[in-house]
Specification:
495 residues; Helicase, Ruva Protein, domain 3; 5-stranded parallel β-sheet; 24 helices; 10% strand; binds zinc ion
């Protein structure tokens, strides 16, 4: 069934081919102008349309009903029909993976290329798939033909591994680089197929298929075919899960959020829960790495990077990325990668993941310890001012409510981190909070309030605190004595 879907809906015109627009346009222009190369090189990942376009190109060249202003084959004439049914005498397809010997190349290609096309006026087209598999003598024989190409003969060489193709061959070809098909295009194509097949299924499932296929349309169509073959017109999540591996993004998101918030307990429980539910550990690890990678790339490249994801997944990555410091994400990804690479040595399957969690929190504790040492050396006299500031923080927040009540609400969630002669650093939980607070008139009023309290001017900087929860808890959990001190300074005006 899966293979049937793939064959059944193989595109018959350039217009139907998914993706690869620049290649399609160039090939059609060459057919129309008659300005053809002797050899073409189609380079790119598997399942991205190389063979499909090679056949289509050959059909376009030999179509008997071609008009002057369209390169689309008619798909009805004798030549088109022969090509569609793989019966054309003039289109010779060779899989180099199974014909690696030089003799085969001589027989099949070199000798045959000097015999005129079977149909009068047709081009003889040789499609050599996986051309990198040819032996060295075979390449040499091919090169000789490319150097003195017979008339009306066209070679289309396709490969997934261009680095294995000799430079002498590459330089004789017009090269086209095929790209992975974007998920959005795959989903669009799958939507068409389920409509033709009269099957209903949720779009989220189509996105799941697209993501699993990693830009390979053939894989996507094959997965869809397998699912449809089980269905009776209606595909639900349960049915899809028989073919598609279970999607754990929400659980992985919860797990990563727990680590971000330094909640080791929740993070470890989440792993155990998933394993108890029978989630395959290899899949879980691969998904976790994929999730962290996307989050990190979003953090660096911005919202544009998420264009190719479905809405729910995009929201997860965006929220997580906005809350994470890039340095922490980088560290976490590295730790997970290193630990899970060692999984084959572990006696307990989930131990590497557990170790990754613990290491993520431990290395941070060490970093913080080092940072604290540095800070206290630098700040010196600032320490006393810092504690005065901390003790009177709520009063400062209250004063600023008069400037802007909603921004003051964000300020209340911030806490003074460090203070030296020139600068006060405030820690916030999310970069979004920093953006809210960092408004010129609000910062000015905040500076004035700090000046009033400390009798000196400082610059105010906001930063996302990697240890937000711990630091904020420590800050909030200050002793009763501290509160008394606050009352003194502001003349007992505690609201
Ligand atoms: Zn035709």
């Amino acid at each position: 069934m899966s293979e049937v879907i793939y064959r059944k809906y193989r595109p018959k015109t350039f217009a139907e081919v998914v993706g690869q627009r620049p290649i399609k346009v160039t090939l059609q222009n060459e057919v129309l102008s008659g300005n053809l190369a002797h050899a073409y090189l189609f380079v790119g990942p598997r399942g991205t349309g190389k063979t499909t376009l090679a056949r289509l190109f050959a059909r376009s060249l030999n179509c008997q009903n071609k008009t002057a202003n369209s390169a689309e084959p008619c798909n009805a004439c004798h030549n088109c029909q022969a090509n569609l049914n793989n019966q054309s005498m003039d289109v010779i397809e060779i899989d180099a993976a199974s014909h690696t010997g030089v003799e085969n190349v001589r027989e099949n290609i070199i000798a045959n290329s000097y015999v005129p096309a079977f149909e009068v006026g047709s081009y003889k087209v040789f499609v050599i798939d996986e051309v990198h598999m040819l032996s060295k003598p075979a390449f040499n024989a091919l090169l000789k033909t490319l150097e003195e190409p017979p008339k009306k003969v066209i070679f289309i060489l396709a490969t997934t591994e261009i680095h294995k193709v000799p430079e002498t061959i590459i330089s004789r070809c017009q090269r086209f680089d095929f790209k992975k098909i974007p998920s959005a295009d795959i989903v669009k194509r799958l939507s068409e197929i389920i409509e033709w097949e009269k099957v209903t299924m949720a779009e989220t499932l189509l996105w799941q298929i697209a993501r699993r296929s990693d830009g390979c349309l053939r894989d996507a169509e094959s997965l869809l075919g397998q699912i449809i073959s089980l269905a009776d017109g209606q595909v639900d999540d349960e049915l899809a899960s028989l073919v598609l591996p279970r999607n754990n993004w929400q659980e992985i998101d919860d797990f990563v959020a727990a680590l971000r918030m330094r909640n080791l307990n929740t993070a470890l429980n989440q792993i155990h829960k998933l394993i108890d539910e029978g989630v395959d550990l290899e899949t879980l690890t691969a998904d976790l790495l994929e999730y962290l990678r996307h989050t990190m790339l979003y953090k660096i490249l911005g919202a544009d990077y998420l264009r190719d994801f479905d809405d729910s997944f995009r929201d997860l990555l965006k929220n997580q990325g906005d809350g994470f410091e890039l340095s922490d994400l980088h560290r976490l990804l590295n730790i997970v990668l290193t630990k899970t690479n060692q999984r084959h040595y572990a006696m307990i399957d989930q131990l590497p993941l557990e170790l990754a969690c613990v290491e993520f929190l431990l290395t941070e504790a060490e970093n913080t310890k080092n940072n604290t040492n540095i800070t206290s050396q630098v700040t010196g006299d600032g320490e006393q001012d810092l504690s005065v500031l901390k003790n009177n923080w709520d009063q400062i927040v209250d004063k600023l409510k008069k400037v802007n009540n909603s921004v003051a609400a964000f300020l209340k969630t911030a806490h003074p981190l460090t203070l030296d002669q020139e600068q006060l650093f405030l820690g916030v939980e999310y970069s979004f909070h920093a953006e809210q607070i960092n408004k010129p008139e609000f910062i000015l009023a905040l500076k004035q309030a700090v000046h009033e309290l400390l009798k000196r001017s400082v610059k105010i900087e906001l930063k996302v605190d990697a240890n937000y929860l711990t630091n904020h808890q420590n800050f909030r959990g200050r002793s009763e004595e501290d509160v008394d001190l606050a009352v003194d300074v502001f003349g007992g005006e505690v609201v």
